[in-house]
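tool_call: predict_structure(chain=1)
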Amino acid sequence: MGMFALIACSSDDSVESSSNNAIETEEMGASSDTASSMAESTEVVGDEPAETVENSIADSPESTNTTSEEAEEPKSEQSEEPVDDSDVSEPETTQPEIDNAVSPEDEAALEAILTDCNYQWGAASAYRTTLLQEAIGVTVDGVYGNGTRLAHLTALVDRGLSTDCVPTPTQQIIMNLNSEGCDDTDDSITENGISAEFKASWTNSINWIHFRTGPETQETHPDHASIDGSCAFEVAFLSTSDTASIEFSSPYTCLRLSKIQLSFFVAGGETGILNSATVSTIKDGSVVATYYTGLTVDYSVSTTPSVGTLTIPDETCDIDSIQIAVDAIIINAMGDEIHLLMDNLVFTANS
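tool_result:
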């Protein structure tokens, strides 16, 4: 009996112990559930602020617009406001050095052009004047006038060169031989300040050297009596060695003959031929230059006079006379002589 009681007691203790253990286990489980529940609650509470912030940023239009405007604002300022180039520093570049020095050869060539003594006022020295105008940088037209003269003088003075050869302004004087009544017994005339004396190298009783006024006073060849219907001076060539001349005198400075009108014809014979005629300019007894007139006559072909105007390009100053010579075939000196009419002389002189 005693042993049963002891076992039963032990069994009860065992049950009680087991019961206690179960209760502790349950309490621990509950405690564990409570802790787990608190942990989950903590996680939820910790996650909510992040979701709220994200949703707040995403859902708020004001925040979105503000952020976008702030991001785009610098671009707007750059596109609207002009850029001041002066504030922008350009990268430094190395420029090649330019040598503006004129070579000695070029300078010598320029000085030769500047000091040329053959320039003439107006268009008489057109080619030379063109070279000069190109060199001194003025309008290139081949005419030496006031503008070219001023630039020419400036270029010479700047280089310390002489200005002696610079042309001076000129005036034009015309002799149409009409001012003294065209007296056919006279052989000289003074017109517009210039005196002209007509001469021939031969002496003959016929003495065909006189003024002619028109067809009405010409007996044997009325169609040949003048060039333009007004007064002209006539001289006859009885042989190929004959010459005609005009001597000039005037108060003008640097008088030059620029043009003369000429007319050749055969008096009436059928064999007279003029092959050519020349005009020479003379100064102080020496020939300066000789020019071909380009005029010819062959009476067997035509009785019409050969008329032309000779332009004298080399207008040397102070020409005192001109001489006219012919290359002709004159078989009958008293019937085939070559006649010459001279008219409309144009002179130039310094102003």
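agent: The chain has three domains: 1-30, 104-167, 173-350. Proceeding to next step.
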